[in-house]
Design goal:
9 helices; globular; 25% strand; alpha/beta; Class I SAM-dependent methyltransferase; SAM-dependent_MTases_sf; Methyltransf_11; methyltransferase; Rossmann fold
Length: 255
């Protein structure tokens, strides 16, 4: 195994734009939830009049969904709040005629009322259920894979110490918020899946890419704890953490 400093430097050098995680191949693994979000979203998108992907990142996952849709939806749009990702998303979604609007995560959705038959979001930072309900056509569907409470807690608490539970991300709170916005719950379930990091470069790159895991993360601020993770990986072969994923499907009533 390369030495600690070399791996740290490598993890700091990898670009973080987009949501392509192929760099992690052989360096980290994460179990996928049993429901298969991309396949499920592709089925919902097949033949839909209009589909919106909220907080699309680099558009990679949405493009995968659209490739699997048959027939493809008549109109495709996405929002993204991080400027470096906008160009990536436009390139990824251009083959599908997709329109990508740069819009901050907590801003109102820049679309007219009842514009879409389907709204998607995978791992949104913020979920404004009222806005989602507003842009859904009557009878339209919201399908989302959400990050649940204490996702990756083993990693972030190793660096930060014990942290309070984010009750906004509990499954009961999501149900309450969706129903308060007038949406009807169709499906709501949660799974915890295993994550393994096989070198400290993967940990560093992950923390730089998934910025909400340890807000304000820098190597200099956490070097000593990162070295401890490095030693755990050398001893055990991996640093193990667990993600929490929630599948939420809801519908806007027809009347």
């Amino acid at each position: 195994m390369p030495d600690f400093d070399s791996l740290i430097a490598e993890g700091e050098a990898v670009p973080t734009e987009g949501w392509d995680f192929s760099w992690f191949l052989g360096r980290a693994t994460e179990e996928r939830p049993s429901w298969g979000y991309a396949r499920l979203a592709a089925r919902r998108a097949s033949g839909a009049v209009g589909v919106l992907d909220v907080q699309t990142g680099g558009g990679e996952v949405f493009a995968e969904v659209l490739r699997g849709a048959d027939p493809r939806p008549a109109a495709v749009a996405a929002t993204e709040g991080w400027h470096p990702n906008v160009a990536l998303a436009r390139e990824a979604l251009a083959p599908f005629g997709g329109i990508v609007v740069e819009s901050l995560e907590d801003a109102p959705l820049p679309f007219a009322d009842a514009s879409f038959a389907l709204v998607l979001s995978r791992h949104p930072v913020v979920t404004d259920f009222a806005e989602i309900g507003r842009v859904l056509a009557p009878g339209g569907t919201y399908l989302s894979q959400q990050i649940g409470e204490r996702s990756n807690a083993e990693l972030y608490e190793f660096l930060l110490g014990p942290q309070p539970v984010d009750d906004v991300r509990t499954i009961d709170r999501m149900r309450e918020r969706a129903q308060s916005a007038g949406l009807e719950i169709v499906d709501l379930r949660e799974e915890r899946t295993r994550i393994e990091f096989f070198d400290i470069a993967a940990v560093v790159h992950f923390l730089r890419k998934v910025i909400w895991t340890v807000p304000g993360f820098t190597v200099d601020a956490y070097r000593d704890r990162l070295r401890e993770i490095h030693e755990i990986i050398r001893r055990d072969g991996a640093f193990v953490s667990y993600s929490s994923r929630i599948l939420l499907e809801a519908r806007r009533p027809t009347s």
